Amino acid sequence: MTAPRTHKITLIPGDGIGPEVTRAVVRILEATGVKFEWERFAAGAEAFEIHGEYIPAALCESIERNRIALKGPVGTPIGGGFKSINVTLRKKFDLFANFRPIKNLPGLDTKFPNLDLIIVRENTEGEYVGIEHEIIPGVVESIKVITEKGSTRIAKFAFEYARKHGRKKIHSIHKANIMKLSDGLFLECARRVSEGFPEIVYGEHIIDNTCMQMVMNPWQYDTLLLENLYGDIVSDLCAGLVGGLGLVPGANIGLECAIFEAVHGSAPDIAGKDVANPTALLQSAVLMLRHIDEQAAADRVQTAIETVYGERKTLTRDVGGKAGTTEFADAIIAALPPA
Ligand code: NAI
């Protein structure tokens, strides 16, 4: 028998609730018996205090070497201060696809049961290129960049995922009635790619209508293809449909590397109190387990999540329970099916 493989993973606990939820998730992952070697790094304000850099060079080298990172949220100052660490890492490693599955968990009474949506968000372009300047006092310009290359590759990612996983429909979400050139190009690329996937029904909805449709009849959607800013907003909206930001996972995927992280931020309002819900990062870790081909462990963790939610005895307070982060993690470990 060959010895089990050890996976070297770059671990960024992040700040706010990041260290608490990361600690819980690492304990659960280790309880599966899969062998990990974690390379831990600070990022953002904490890294600056220690290393004088917001993203230490050693962190980037670790991601380049390991090609996989698990990341907690990192706070970004509003209005001024340093650039978003999340956006910077996505750009640096060209993690062009932000993949966010939205699914109900058992035991949660939400207004929208039986949802099963996939959000594919372009992750490197749009308003997030960060090109802003003051033209004259009182007038600033922020530039949105959409390229044929970026739009085509994210559309291909969405259609290839849909084909591989038997998804039936893709909607491109846009505002091409107003942003005729930029969103127009995004749509043109998606339409062209869609021609190679005749088995997948292709549709287009305007972003404001989409938000209304989402809270009236979200079941009409299957897979959504969005540029960066729309994807950011619609992901939070969809997280709300299935019980909140504490639940939904995410992955940032490029050709060389992938960073797995929850949709939520550092939640400074609840940080340090052992009340944060680690499910979102845990479900991101399940995506990571699938990515590194540890399917059995991924299935076991997913089953444990569904058992604990189904029983409703040990849930965190954001989903109506009383358990703390640590107690919830203990319950998941206890519910892991045997290997
Ligand atoms: P947030 O996602 O941190 O929090 C929004 C609300 O959801 C808060 O009430 C919070 O308590 C709750 N919440 C979030 N995650 C939760 C969890 N796991 N369990 C229970 N409740 C949870 O969004 P906010 O407040 O807008 O941003 C805070 C900071 O996070 C900002 O500095 C922002 O830039 C950063 N951020 C970082 C992200 C990342 O690292 N990927 C993503 C989004 C925001």
List the helices and strands and how they pair.
Layout: E1 6-12, H1 18-31, E2 35-40, H2 45-51, H3 57-66, E3 68-71, H4 85-92, E4 97-103, E5 116-122, E6 126-136, E7 139-145, H5 148-164, E8 169-174, H6 182-194, E9 201-206, H7 207-216, E10 223-226, H8 228-241, E11 251-253, E12 258-261, H9 279-291, H10 295-311, H11 325-335
The chain binds 1,4-dihydronicotinamide adenine dinucleotide.
Could you please describe the fold and organization of this structure?
The chain is of the alpha/beta class and 339 residues long. The protein folds into 2 domains: 1-101 and 244-339, Isopropylmalate Dehydrogenase (3-Layer(aba) Sandwich), CATH 3.40.718; 111-241, 3-Layer(aba) Sandwich (Isopropylmalate Dehydrogenase), CATH 3.40.718.10. Helices cover 40% and strands 21% of the residues. It contains 11 helices and 12 strands. It has helices spanning 18-31, 45-51, 57-66, 85-92, 148-164, 182-194, 207-216, 228-241, 279-291, 295-311, 325-335, and strands at 6-12, 35-40, 68-71, 97-103, 116-122, 126-136, 139-145, 169-174, 201-206, 223-226, 251-253, 258-261. The chain has a 10-stranded mixed sheet, sandwiched between helices. Helix 6 links the parallel strand 8 (169-174) and strand 9. The model has no long low-confidence stretch (mean pLDDT 96). The structure holds 1,4-dihydronicotinamide adenine dinucleotide. 1,4-dihydronicotinamide adenine dinucleotide (NAI) binds next to loops.
